[in-house]
């Protein structure tokens, strides 16, 4: 498939998809199908009525009898309190009783006990494979719930269908009676067995309770004290929490002390060898340890025990730092001034005097505070050594305290875990004893309830609707009507579907447009079946013209058919513009009316005052010369052979501006002549001489001539009729045209009846498909 064919196919699929998605078009298609297949639908209705009538008239009558049972469970607690009430039965138990009603046990015993297996109406339904029990079960129905809002009621409805209304009632009555008898006897037997089992369980539980109580008392006597107060908190757990808090606080203190020690050591290392910064070393001592350090230094001097020293110690510590700092500052200023001004400068002498006075003051102060003359001077380095030693001792003491706390925490944790294990064991033993006691109480309570119900059943089953004489259920009028309607729908749908699938006729212009991906330019009515056309043909026959009476565009230019051709001409002229002048006309089959339409279209083009040449390219069955009433002695064949000139064989028609080139003598090889270079050269010559050149070609399906001509012309016009095999033929034509990349100008539908308003063209109002009104007027 070439590119042009692929594009056209994709467009066709898209157009069909859009048509199917349109709700209005779909509705019209359905109505059209129903209208076409009226006979088939009528036959389907007859068939449906016959099937429904046969069901209603010939089906043996069937009757049904029903009974309703109410199911509830007895409430033993209510019986013990002298209050009568019932509990709703569970879903599982309800389903169990539904199966029980349809079981062979109940149904078989009911039929045997009631003597119903010998009923004539039942015997006639039996055979080698069907017993009375199985027949009844097959025709039984058990449903639950009521009607309307009572659909969830605990009610079972038992029904039986049979040919005898009396026997229906007897069977249902027997089954209900057998079911109630079975339930009452089985529940009574169950109660007796339950009493024996419960008494045995009570004896076993009494022994278990005694053993559990004895073990619990022994455990309580040997267990340690769990807490200081019964039911109170675990004392080991409390101790563990307290010690953990102390350890956490101690760890903070240790971290602070170690950090302070590292800070002091780092500071001393940075100040080593700096005489002028001795006071900065003392500044590293924190306030908390200053007093302790002073006491240690004094003890080292031997005066720590004197009252005088203790009284003067705060004064010593308070002024030491400030005084020493002032003296060092003065000495530093003196040294700097001596370098800058010299030893005799007044400012230098003033600083020397101040330093001397400060040293005299220190001597006087030492005498006042009782400093001994043989006492060695205390340096900042000595103080800082003592300070570092003090802090290191503190850290060691704190680490030892931490180890003691961790040991105590481990002991408390072990004690707490031991007590927790004892508590858990105590709770488990107590729960076991309590569980045995509760179970014993339940057994005793259940035994008391069963003893109270010895003469009653645990299940209340009441017949709230007794079986009555069977009512007729089939054949039913509504069911017969439903069968008739369903049969009619199925038969009609099947017949219509088969008919539509086997019908390949083209029924709408949309079908052609979808297949060819080209627009339908117009629809030509059947001249023989249209009154107006027949009248105009008779008038043309009586005229003196040699042209065929079917050329309405010449004989009746104001007719409706001529107006249709003018509308198609307008659309074609949009394609035949500029250098596009060659138009080939073909059709799928012989007899589609192609030549007549081509002649009418050529006349319509000539009436626009344009020069038009109509060539008869059908070298097998030429007909254009007959339509225009001219001789066919020489023509296109002779020109291609070179025996005649074009001007010699071209004939002017009765229509002004229209010339005819007939076929001439029929050749033995028409396809070869059309494929020759002479034919292609002739077309190019005609393109220069005439405004429009129209080629009347043979049909597409029988011969290959149109497929040869199509690539040589500018546009191809397809004339098609309506026939039973239209879709397959149209698809075949489309494949041929696509294979040669033919450029379709449009499609003309012949013998389609009088065009409707959608596709036709009236006398006063013109509707050109695919052409805006403004452009149509300009053409």
Could you say which structural class the secondary elements and strand pairing correspond to?
alpha/beta
Instruction: State mean pLDDT (0 to 100 scale).
Output: 77
Question: What spatial form do the alpha-carbon principal axes imply?
Answer: flat
Query: Separation of termini?
Result: 36 Å
| Poorly predicted spans | 1-28, 76-86, 226-230, 754-779
Q: What is the β-strand count? A: 14
Main sheet? 8 strands, mixed
Number of helices: 29
Task: Output the radius of gyration.
Answer: 63 Å
Strand order of the largest sheet: 7-14-13-8-12-9-11-10
Task: Indicate the percent of residues in helices.
Answer: 55-70%
| Strand composition percent | 5-15%
Task: Give a concise summary.
This protein is of the alpha/beta class and 779 residues long.
Main attributes of the structure:
disordered N terminus; 8-stranded mixed β-sheet; alpha/beta; 779 residues; 10% strand; 6-stranded antiparallel β-sheet; 29 helices
Question: What can you tell me about this protein's structure?
Answer:
- This protein is an alpha/beta fold and 779 residues long.
- The chain contains 29 helices and 14 strands.
- The strands form two sheets. Strands 7-14-13-8-12-9-11-10 form an eight-stranded mixed beta sheet, sandwiched between helices. Strands 1, 2, 3, 4, 5 and 6 form a six-stranded antiparallel beta sheet that branches.
- A hairpin with a 5-residue loop joins strand 10 and strand 11.
- Helix 1 (3-21) packs antiparallel against helix 28 (726-739) and helix 9 (165-222) packs across helix 15.
- It is flat and about 165 Å long.
- The chain starts with a helix and ends with a helix.
């Amino acid at each position: 498939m070439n590119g042009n064919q692929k594009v056209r196919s994709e467009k066709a699929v898209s157009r069909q998809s859009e048509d199917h998605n349109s709700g209005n078009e779909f509705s019209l298609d359905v109505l059209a199908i129903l209208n076409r297949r009226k006979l088939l639908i009528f036959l389907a209705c007859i068939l449906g009525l016959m099937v429904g009538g046969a069901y209603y008239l010939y089906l043996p009558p069937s009757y049904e009898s029903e009974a309703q049972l109410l199911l509830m469970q007895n409430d033993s607690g209510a019986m013990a309190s002298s209050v009568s009430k019932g509990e709703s039965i569970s879903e599982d138990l309800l389903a169990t009783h539904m199966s029980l009603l349809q079981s062979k046990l109940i149904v078989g015993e009911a039929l045997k006990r009631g003597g119903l297996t010998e009923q004539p109406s039942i015997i006639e339904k039996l055979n080698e494979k069907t017993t009375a029990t199985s027949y009844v079960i097959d025709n039984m129905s058990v449903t639950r719930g009521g009607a309307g809002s009572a659909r969830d009621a605990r009610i079972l409805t038992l029904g039986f269908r049979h040919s005898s209304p009396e026997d229906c009632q007897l069977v249902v009555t027997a089954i209900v009676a057998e079911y109630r008898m079975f339930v009452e006897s089985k529940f009574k037997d169950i109660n007796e067995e339950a009493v024996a089992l419960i008494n045995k369980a009570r004896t076993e539980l009494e022994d278990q309770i005694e053993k559990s109580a004895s073990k619990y008392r022994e455990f309580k006597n040997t267990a340690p004290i769990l807490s200081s107060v019964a039911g109170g908190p675990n004392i080991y757990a409390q101790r563990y929490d307290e010690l953990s808090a102390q350890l956490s606080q101690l760890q903070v203190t240790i971290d602070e002390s170690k950090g302070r020690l590292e800070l002091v050591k780092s500071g001393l290392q940075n100040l080593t060898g700096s005489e002028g910064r001795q006071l900065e070393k003392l500044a590293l001592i924190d306030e908390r340890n200053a007093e302790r350090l002073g006491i240690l230094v004094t003890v080292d001097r031997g005066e720590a025990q004197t009252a005088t020293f203790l009284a003067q110690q705060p004064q010593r510590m308070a002024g030491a730092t400030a005084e020493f700092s002032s003296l060092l500052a003065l000495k530093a200023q003196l040294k700097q001034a001596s370098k800058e001004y010299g030893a005799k400068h007044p400012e230098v002498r003033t600083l020397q005097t101040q330093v001397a006075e400060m040293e005299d003051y220190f001597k006087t102060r030492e005498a006042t505070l009782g400093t001994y003359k043989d006492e060695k001077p205390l340096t900042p380095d000595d103080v800082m050594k003592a300070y570092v030693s003090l802090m290191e001792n503190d850290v060691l003491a704190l680490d030892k305290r931490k180890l003691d706390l961790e040991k105590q925490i481990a002991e408390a944790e072990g004690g707490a875990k031991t007590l927790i294990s004892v508590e858990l064991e105590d709770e488990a033993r107590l729960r076991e004893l309590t569980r045995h006691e509760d179970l014993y109480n339940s057994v005793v309570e259940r035994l008391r309830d069963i003893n109270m119900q010895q003469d009653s059943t645990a299940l209340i089953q009441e017949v709230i609707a007794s079986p009555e004489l069977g009512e007729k259920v089939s054949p039913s009028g509504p069911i017969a009507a439903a069968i008739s309607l369903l049969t009619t729908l199925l038969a009609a749908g099947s017949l219509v579907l088969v008919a539509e699938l086997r019908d390949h006729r083209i029924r709408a212009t949309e079908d052609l447009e979808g297949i060819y991906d080209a627009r339908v330019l117009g629809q030509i009515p059947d001249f023989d079946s249209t009154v107006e056309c027949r009248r105009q043909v008779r008038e043309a026959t009586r005229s003196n013209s040699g042209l065929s009476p079917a050329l309405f565009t010449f004989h009746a230019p104001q007719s409706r058919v001529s107006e249709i051709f003018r509308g198609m001409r307008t659309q074609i002229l949009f394609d035949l513009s500029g250098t596009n002048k060659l138009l080939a006309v073909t059709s799928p089959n012989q007899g589609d009316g192609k030549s007549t339409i081509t002649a009418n279209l050529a006349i319509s083009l000539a009436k626009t005052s344009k020069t038009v040449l109509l060539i008869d390219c059908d070298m097998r069955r030429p007909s254009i010369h007959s339509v225009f009433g001219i001789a066919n002695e020489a023509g296109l064949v002779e020109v291609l052979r070179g025996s005649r000139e074009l001007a010699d064989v071209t004939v002017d028609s009765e229509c002004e501006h229209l010339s005819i080139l007939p076929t001439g003598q029929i050749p033995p090889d028409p396809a070869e002549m059309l494929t020759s270079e002479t034919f292609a050269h002739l077309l190019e010559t005609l393109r220069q001489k005439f405004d429009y050149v129209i080629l009347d070609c043979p049909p597409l399906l029988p011969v290959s001539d149109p497929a040869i001509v199509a690539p040589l012309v500018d546009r191809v016009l397809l004339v098609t009729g309506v026939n039973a095999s239209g879709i397959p033929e149209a698809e075949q034509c489309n494949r041929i045209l696509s294979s040669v990349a033919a450029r379709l100008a449009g499609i003309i539908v012949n013998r389609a009846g009088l065009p409707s308003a959608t596709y036709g063209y009236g006398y006063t109002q013109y509707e050109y498909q695919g052409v805006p009104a403004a452009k149509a007027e300009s053409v």
